[in-house]
Amino acid sequence: MTNAWEVTPASLAPIAGVTYAQEVIDVAVLAVKNYLGWPVAPRGLRTVILDGNHTQKLVLPSLDPDAEVLGVRDVTGDSPVALNGWRKLGRPILFRAEGWPCGEGAIEVDLEDGYATLPVDLLPMVANACANQTSTTGGVLKTVSIDDYSEGYDTTGASAAGPTKLHPYRLPRKTA
């Protein structure tokens, strides 16, 4: 398996301080992508299915300010119907004066989004996910004593690679 972010043991070692197997890195990349809620990189075409609720604004699952919407369809009927009369507002939000179709999975959007290359400030998060995968305690080893052996783990979410910063890349989650 090779991850879409092209993170390798060589690119992660200077940040993590250790070398992880490619398989561990690939799983960590998938975990981080799932946590973030959108692909982030590389830039590419994708189709997303969104819920509609008759409001005028439709929030796209992307934080790419340069995301391009290529098409929008109403999929509530037997066959998709192209929707017109929308325009993009700021952070990927589409505005449509007459509102959006209502229902779960009512809207299909084709978009091109993502950064050309992975932002380097996400590498520490991948390193942290690798460390959490390989730790038997669920934390990162922080201290070891030799006489009367002891070891200490940090389970606060920090990593050997330093604190993780995700908020600029993580999509907000809906709350019930």
What's the arrangement of secondary structure elements?
Blueprint: H1 9-16, H2 22-36, E1 44-52, E2 57-59, E3 68-74, E4 81-82, E5 86-89, E6 93-96, E7 103-113, H3 123-134, E8 140-145, E9 150-154
Antiparallel strand pairs: 1-7, 2-6, 3-4, 3-7, 5-6, 8-9
Helix pairs in contact: 2-3
Characteristics:
single chain, 2 domains, alpha+beta, three-stranded antiparallel beta sheet, four-stranded antiparallel beta sheet, 176 residues, 9 strands
Describe the structure.
The protein has 176 residues and is of the alpha+beta class. It has two domains: 1-41 and 119-176, no CATH class; 44-113. The protein contains three helices and nine strands. The strands form three sheets. A four-stranded antiparallel beta sheet has the order 1-7-3-4, with no helix packed on it. Strands 2-6-5 form a three-stranded antiparallel beta sheet, with no helix packed on it. β5 and β6 form a beta hairpin.
